[in-house]
Amino acid sequence: MSIAEGNSGTQTLTFTVSLSQPVDTNISVDYATASNTATSGSDFTTTTGTLTINAGQSSGTISVTISGDATVELDETFFVNLSHLIASSRDVSLTDNQATGTITNGSKES
Q1: In a domain? residue 38
Q2: φ and ψ at residue 7, rounded to 5 degrees
Q3: What is the rounded distance in angstroms from the CA atom of residue 74 to the CA atom of residue 32?
Q4: Closest Cα to residue 56, out of 33, 23, 87?
Q5: What is the mean pLDDT of each run of 10 residues along the chain (110 residues)?
Q6: Would you give the end-to-end CA distance of the chain in angstroms?
Q7: How many folded domains does the chain comprise?
Q8: What is the separation of C-alpha 33 from the centre of its chain, rounded to a whole number of angstroms?
Q9: What does DSSP say about strands 2-4 and 98-104: parallel, antiparallel, or unpaired?
């Protein structure tokens, strides 16, 4: 997922967590952001919680707030990590537990 940073204010970058097919039970998974080249607190807001995908559904979303600034910089990245899957079905597992968010530079030199 990627988003243009912008020169001020905040925006939301939304990640979709998808199941290969709907299941007949609720599924919960914990999530947490982690810095890479983007810095938590200045480039994006640290985000943690538990995502629940209800029975019969095949996806859910996680939203991360991105902060704009007027600094000219390279594109930056951060991670959304998934852990602690809770599902009553043994047929459910995490096949990809990490997503990368890219904040593209929104500022231009004058």
Answers
A1: yes
A2: -90, -10
A3: 24
A4: 23
A5: 91 94 90 97 97 94 95 94 84 87 71
A6: 28
A7: 1
A8: 7
A9: parallel
Distance CA 77, CA 85 (A): 25
**Parallel, antiparallel or unpaired: strands 59-67 and 10-18:** antiparallel
Question: What is the spatial distance between Cα 58 and Cα 102, in angstroms, rounded to a whole number?
Answer: 25
- Report residue 5 as tokens: 């940073």
Is 40 contained in some domain? yes
Rounded to whole angstroms, the Cα distance separating 79 from 67 reads: 16
Query: 3-state class of 32 per DSSP?
Result: strand
**Any domain includes 81:** yes
Give the strand pairing for 76-87 and 27-35.
antiparallel
Residue 110, in any domain of the structure: no
CATH of the domain at 17: 2.60.40.2030
Residue 57: give the domain boundaries: 2-104
Q: How far apart are CA 9 and CA 59, in angstroms?
A: 29
Q: Per the confidence metrics, is the pTM higher than 0.85?
A: yes
